[in-house]
Amino acid sequence: MNTIQCREAAGVRLPGKSWREGEPCSFVWAPAGLHSLRAGFREHDTISITVDVDQEAVQQLQDSFDHLTATHPKQEPYGDEDHAASKACLRFPQGETLFSWGEIGGTEGVIITGGRPTSYGCEVVNGKVFRSWSPEFTTDADFEAAVCVNQHWTFPDFVRGSESNPAHITGVNFVVGALTNRPAFREMPAVKAKLATDPVTQILESLSRQSQEVNKILDRLADEEGRSQ
Q1: What gap in Å lies between CA 42 and CA 47, rounded to an integer?
Q2: Are residues 69 and 13 in the same domain?
Q3: 102-122 pLDDT, tens per residue?
């Protein structure tokens, strides 16, 4: 599964209210709008992807979560720390966990409710060890068209997942997200200036940028070959 793990940059802060073990809590799972993310991808890689978070994501996430819990009835989705998939900080019970659209603390977006903090989650949140939340999700990005260089994936212009063709959230991971101090979501302008240009100009600009990237790679390979001789 091409799961996006949001690990870097600035983003969603958790509400200041203290957590209590087993007591349901609510917070912004992902903020609304267009976001450019540098995230974890396929265990050891990273990816640059642009995602448009809108109200349609709510139903997608709820359906995905309900499917996960229905097909894994003896297991319970959870949130961990820094996407390590180890210590559970929250449990998300079947039938209690809900996704909705709303606003908390001035931040609009997808709200998750019903998560129950573990004793460890209360310790690290109330002790301010972690201050933010970072989701894990799937998208409709065209991963087959993505390009990988040095274990970092990018989407060429006009490919779904690029800035000129943002992806949309399609589901949630069994690890629903993670407590972190470096979440990936950050604000982006709603409209890029280059989107207003005519298609021919966009294509020419894209080809020029790709040519520059290829030249950089060739120069780096030439330098490495020179040093090895």
Answers
A1: 9
A2: yes
A3: 998 888 999 999 999 999 999
